[in-house]
Amino acid sequence: MMDSNRPLLEIIDLKVTFPLGKEEISAVDGVTFSLSRGTTLGVVGESGSGKSTIARAVAQLVIPKSGQIIFDGIDLSSLNNKAIRGMRARMQMVFQDPGGSLNEYMRVGKIITEPLLVHGLAKGKELAKRAEELLVQVGLQKEDASRYPHEFSGGQKQRIAIARAISLKPELLICDEPTSALDVTVQAKILKLLANLRNELGLTLLFITHDLAVVNEFCDEAIVVSKGKIVERGDITSVIHSPSHPITKELIASSYA
Ligand code: ADP
Ligand code: MG
């Protein structure tokens, strides 16, 4: 039975380190937070503060040194590889650089339906039909399925990456600076698309950015990270309008400059 009070995602004392010669750098140093279903949590911080590493740990792309990542009540460290693959279908990621995340030799229709093929959820004509549906859902054209990534603009490439990310109907979407590489006007359009999809699909979002103006518009709650630790957390109104940490104040100043 689904427990609707249970958070979709719980992170408990997460630590991630990377080797640096004989030393270790601590990228994430004891981070704890939870994310309720249907809400959007902003993860804010300066460059190098550990935001992407948190995202990658949640998506099982890096292995934590310690701590727990609990998705829908299941501790991910307790799962075998097959179960992890199943879990991956329930959480998907959108990256900052839309071009870099798309295989340039594959047609767009194939790119966005590859997850369905890999997970054995559709084949043949069904895949082609799903590709067209997904393209329309992200504001592109059915005909775009037969084109290649280089034929699209940065914003359109991000739409393609989003189409691929939603193809498996994930519950959690992890967005790592999804608009940071785009022009301001395009940023607004991509945010609008994500907001629409969030409503349509009932998505829960972990939304990483260095821009508090975007967080203000888009998120319910925020955590502010610095040097791998959470230095401030709260609902958007309190974080933006009565920040307590100097880092938050700096981020606000640079976001609204
Ligand atoms: P952010 O996304 O906030 O800019 P990151 O999570 O990318 O920060 O990086 C946090 C810290 O971890 C930085 O000091 C960065 O240099 C380091 N780091 C991130 N990924 C790696 C990696 N694959 N190997 C070594 N160091 C890394
Ligand atoms: Mg990053």
What would your notes on this structure say?
By secondary structure, the protein is an alpha/beta fold. 37% of the residues lie in helices and 26% in strands. The chain has 9 helices and 10 strands. A 6-stranded mixed beta sheet has the order 6-7-8-3-9-10, sandwiched between helices. The protein has a 4-stranded antiparallel beta sheet with strand order 2-1-4-5. Strand 4 and strand 5 form a beta hairpin. The longest helix has 18 residues. The mean pLDDT is 94. Adenosine-5'-diphosphate binds next to strand 2 and helix 1.
Ordered list of secondary-structure elements with their pairings:
Layout: E1 9-20, E2 23-35, E3 40-45, H1 51-58, E4 66-71, E5 74-75, H2 81-90, E6 91-94, H3 108-118, H4 125-137, H5 154-166, E7 172-176, H6 184-201, E8 204-209, H7 212-218, E9 221-226, E10 229-235, H8 236-241, H9 246-255
Parallel strand pairs: 3-8, 3-9, 6-7, 7-8
Antiparallel strand pairs: 1-2, 1-4, 4-5, 9-10
Bound molecules: adenosine-5'-diphosphate (ADP) and magnesium ion (MG).
Magnesium ion binds at residues 51-52, 176.
How would you concisely characterize the structure shown here?
It contains 9 helices and 10 strands.
* Computed CA radius of gyration, to the nearest angstrom: 18 Å
- Number of helices, counting only DSSP H or I runs of 4 residues or more: 9
- Cα distance spanning the termini: 48 Å
Order of helices and strands: EEEHEEHEHHHEHEHEEHH
Structural class: alpha/beta
The amount of helix comes to 25-40%
Strand order in the largest sheet? 6-7-8-3-9-10
User: Largest sheet at a glance?
Assistant: 6 strands, mixed
**Which ligands occur here?**
adenosine-5'-diphosphate, magnesium ion
User: On the 0-100 scale, what is the average pLDDT?
Assistant: 94
Q: Report the β-strand fraction as a percent range.
A: 25-35%
| Strands, count | 10
Q: Which stretches are low in confidence, meaning pLDDT under 50 for 5 or more residues running?
A: none
Shape by Cα distribution: globular
